[in-house]
Specification:
The complex is a heterodimer.
Chain A (H helix, E strand, L loop, with lengths): L5 H29 L6 H6 L5 H18 L1 H10 L1 H23 L4 H28 L3 E2 L2 E2 L9 H25 L2 H32 L1 H8 L3 H5 L1 H18 L5 H21 L2 E3 L3 E2 H4 L3 H28 L12
Helix pairs in contact in A: 1-3, 1-6, 1-7, 3-4, 5-6, 6-7, 7-8, 7-12, 8-9, 8-11, 11-12
Chain B lengths: L4 H40 L2 H34 L2 H35 L6 H30 L4 E4 L2 E4 L2 H5 L4 H30 L3 H36 L1 H8 L5 E2 L3 E8 L4 E8 L2 H7 L5 E2 L14 H29 L7 H10 L2 H17 L2 E3 L3 E2 L10 H32 L26 H6 L1
Antiparallel strand pairs in B: 1-2, 3-6, 4-5, 7-8
Helix pairs in contact in B: 1-2, 1-4, 1-6, 1-12, 1-13, 2-3, 2-7, 2-13, 3-4, 4-6, 6-7, 6-11, 6-12, 7-8, 7-10, 8-10, 8-12, 10-11, 10-12
Classes of the chains: A mainly alpha, B mainly alpha.
């Protein structure tokens, strides 16, 4: 059987990573906003309490999916971002246990409140640094990363780290608008507007910075006829940005969240267009880094069977916890 | 100062996995216990099972949350510190790890929300199904992780090309020679670990004369379970030992501190192994018993460590002592269970002070046995990551410096030393506050949530002051 599974795994892994970015993105974003939110912050936390660890498991799926489908990429990229990964994991540990520890331990609630918010910010920043380092590419010798564990320290990667904090906070604001009401919702709208402006500035900056820093990407973007085919990306981005502003200033409940997702989707597509077909920029393509046919096929069978079930019961658990989060007993 | 990234990476792996393994050791058993309680409540409608289930779910929530976050760390260790191992083995091992993520992690995480927060939002049967799914999830998780570990111990079904492993036969890869024994031995160990914790908590209440009905139910149920599982575990351990003798004889020689290949070997009860001189000091041993236990034949031959070049031998002292700690704890558990049969026959199970005290003191024993068993099998696998094929020294990430790993190790040390003590204190607090008064049964499915979901029932302070 000679069937090229690489495109299929590329799509699956891409979807998994995007799913993670949106879903853990909004709950990390809620964590980021938590530190600033007024009033009853328990509501803010409860807006994500039942679903956050389901979301976070997609990080494992993303990591293991990369290991399974493109092991060479895993073996090169992960050591290259040794410290951002470490910092992200430690921050996620703090943030994760804060859910449990905060609920049950009022004596040290302040500490865990800060751990929750700080952990969310640091984890997000570290993820942004990983992304920025990935876009810039890696030093490679044979099948191994050949740089140092501090190669990730660069203005571009650090900038992406900061930008992602605003990006996730925008998603988080969208989620809070959807799940809350009254003063808290009004506050989330204001926070969302600030984040939207910051995100748009960041997108613009990255769009100028990337082609300046990388001649290959510049060529891909600006040569004829690519520029025509790629022009819908910035145009649609601008339209979604306008939509997001409108939704944040009017009484729309779902649209701000959807527009946030739209902005992430277009950024994601933009990165994919720029780097395709590299998985270890700028050394190995998806095909070169792919695992054996047998490995990809073996995992694919179970994935195609399990993924729809996973998505179904994930949807079901969201359905169970639908509706606004309210203070107090909240049963009636 | 000369910092060795290999040694430090190994220490870091020891640190993160030793803490992590304590959580599945507890949650795998507890998930099944909660599932049984939910099932009994669903089937009999008796309030006591509802109270017990609600009580243990609160403790489960804390330990599971800690398990998830410390578990997410693990797959990334393969990439950050063991990238050459990842590159060499990913074609074979990555689907097993990915299936763990897919079948287990998701099953647990998706249904966990319903189990923890959904009592009032879903019908009773759905809550039971959620408990069942979480329990299945923990077992699937154990299945895939132990399949991965077993393949590293006794690799099978692979081809080698360019210094990398490629899959030959997936069934042989998953069901590698040591897997059935390892799976059975480990899962039963997890159940026993949970059993002794539940028994310890029950004994604590009985000593204090609080929640007496609940405590009697817990202690009685658990001791019946342990009555079956502890002897079964000793049998499984013996079978696992035979398997190790066949497939990993060097590990077994280290466990027993045998240096020379002999028939009718002695069993070393105690010794100080001396690797440099290839001998033991201060030996206390029983003749012939070694052959009898290891081969089930008094004339059986057992290979000694001198059969292997020094570079291929595992360290001796750690497997030797860790194994003895594990077996010693097993025998202690058996003694306690035997005492429970005698007391139960005389109807003194619930009011014998020394027995209740013993149960309380025994509650951490399972964790110690799990750690000791894990140290035995993993240190005994050295100096290989894939037994006999890939050396640990050839598995580490080449880009790492000793300084890098010192920094990360400090990071993990600090965070875990905050997280684990706080988590344990929190669970102890929940355990002290005990099962609450009968709660109102849910009457309708409604949306919305309590302000503090996990603590929707009266908190410990309210409980103590009342």
């Amino acid at each position: 059987m000679v069937l090229d599974l690489v495109p299929l795994w590329t799509v699956l892994l891409g979807l998994a990573v995007f799913y993670y970015v949106v879903f853990d993105g909004f709950d990390l974003g809620v964590g980021i906003l938590y530190g600033l939110a007024p009033g009853d912050r328990a509501i803010v936390m409860n807006a994500i309490a039942p679903i956050w660890d389901g979301n976070e498991t997609w990080l494992v799926f993303g990591g293991l999916g990369l290991l399974a489908a493109f092991p060479l990429a895993f073996a090169i990229i992960i050591p290259a971002v040794y410290f951002p990964i470490l910092i992200m994991l430690l921050a996620l540990v703090f943030r994760g246990v804060a859910f449990e520890f905060r609920f049950k331990h009022p004596a040290v609630r302040n500490f865990w409140d800060r751990a929750f918010c700080g952990g969310s910010i640091v984890a997000t920043f570290a993820q942004g640094v990983v992304l920025g380092t990935f876009i810039q590419g890696f030093k490679v010798d044979g099948r191994q990363f050949a740089g140092t564990s501090f190669d990730w320290v660069s203005p571009f990667a650090l900038f992406i780290g900061v930008a992602l904090i605003f990006g996730y906070a925008l998603l988080g604001a969208g989620w809070l608008i959807l799940k809350t009401e009254g003063d808290l919702q009004d506050w989330a709208r204001r926070a969302g507007r600030v984040c939207l402006v910051a995100v748009l500035i960041a997108i613009l900056a990255v769009s100028i910075w990337t082609p300046l820093a990388n001649a290959d990407i510049a060529r891909r973007w600006f040569t004829w006829p690519n520029i025509v085919f790629l022009s819908p990306v910035p145009i649609i981005t601008a339209l979604i940005a306008l939509g997001a502003w409108y939704a944040l200033t009017h009484r729309q409940e779902l649209t701000p969240f959807l527009c946030g997702i739209g902005l992430f989707l277009l950024s994601f597509i933009g990165i994919a267009i720029s780097l395709w077909p590299m998985i270890v920029p700028f050394h190995y393509t998806l095909w070169q880094a792919a695992s054996s046919q047998s490995t990809q096929a073996f995992l694919l069978i179970g994935t195609l069977f399990l993924l729809p079930i996973i998505l179904m019961y994930t949807a079901w658990s969201y359905w169970v916890f639908r509706g606004k989060v309210r203070a107090g007993a909240g049963y009636h | 100062m000369n910092l060795d990234p290999l040694l430090l990476s190994r220490l870091q792996f020891v640190w993160v996995i030793a803490w992590h393994i304590l959580l599945p050791a507890f949650t795998v058993g507890l998930a099944s216990y909660i599932c049984v309680l939910e099932g009994l409540h669903f089937a009999t409608g008796r309030e006591i099972y509802f109270r017990l289930s609600t009580f243990w779910i609160k403790i489960f929530a804390v330990s599971f949350g800690m398990g998830v976050v410390s578990g997410i760390v693990m797959p990334f260790q393969f990439g950050t510190n063991w990238s050459r191992f990842s590159d060499a083995t990913a074609n074979v091992l990555s689907p097993l790890l990915a299936y763990e993520g897919l079948t287990a992690f998701f099953l647990e995480s998706a249904f966990l929300g319903v189990l923890l927060f959904g009592r009032k939002l879903v019908p009773r049967w759905a809550h039971f199904v959620a408990a069942l799914m979480v329990a299945f999830g923990t077992l699937f998780s154990s299945f895939w992780i132990l399949a991965t570990n077993s393949w590293m111990q006794t690799p099978a079904g692979y081809d080698i090309a360019d210094g990398r492993f490629f899959p030959g036969d997936w069934l042989q890869i998953i069901f590698s020679p040591s897997f059935p024994y390892r799976l059975a031995h480990t899962v039963v160990a997890f159940y026993i670990t949970t059993g002794f914790v539940v028994a310890g908590v029950a004994a604590y209440y009985l000593r204090r004369r609080r929640f007496v009905d609940e405590a009697r139910t817990m202690l009685s149920m658990t001791l019946w379970l342990l009555t079956v599982l502890v002897p079964v575990q000793i049998f499984l351990g013996d079978q696992h030992g035979l398997n190790t003798l066949e497939y990993q004889p060097a590990k077994l020689a280290a466990i027993e501190a045998h240096w020379n290949t002999q028939n009718r070997v002695e069993l070393n009860l105690f010794a100080i192994p001396d690797e440099a001189a290839e001998t033991n000091h201060y030996v206390l041993s029983v003749p012939v018993l070694g052959s009898l236990i290891l081969t089930h034949d008094p004339n059986g031959a057992v290979r000694g460590l001198k059969d292997w070049p020094r570079a291929d031998r595992p360290p001796v002292a750690i497997p030797f002592f860790a194994f003895r700690a594990m077996v010693g704890i097993g025998l202690l558990m058996l003694a306690l269970i035997a005492a429970s049969w005698w007391l139960r026959a005389r109807r003194r199970l619930f009011d014998t002070t020394w027995f209740l005290w013993s149960c309380m003191l025994a509650s951490p024993l399972g964790f110690l046995a799990v750690l000791a068993g894990w140290a035995t099998t993993e240190v005994g696998r050295q100096p290989w990551t894939v037994y006999g094929l890939l050396r640990t020294a050839d598995s580490v990430s080449p880009s790492l410096t000793g300084f890098d790993v010192v920094l990360s190790l400090i990071g993990f040390a600090v965070v875990y030393l905050i997280m684990f003590p706080v988590g344990v204190a929190l669970m102890a607090r929940l355990a002290r506050s005990g099962p609450v008064e009968p709660a109102v049964e849910p009457d309708a499915v409604e949306a919305g949530r309590p302000q503090r979901p996990v603590q929707a029932l009266p908190s410990s302070e309210e409980r103590i002051s009342s």
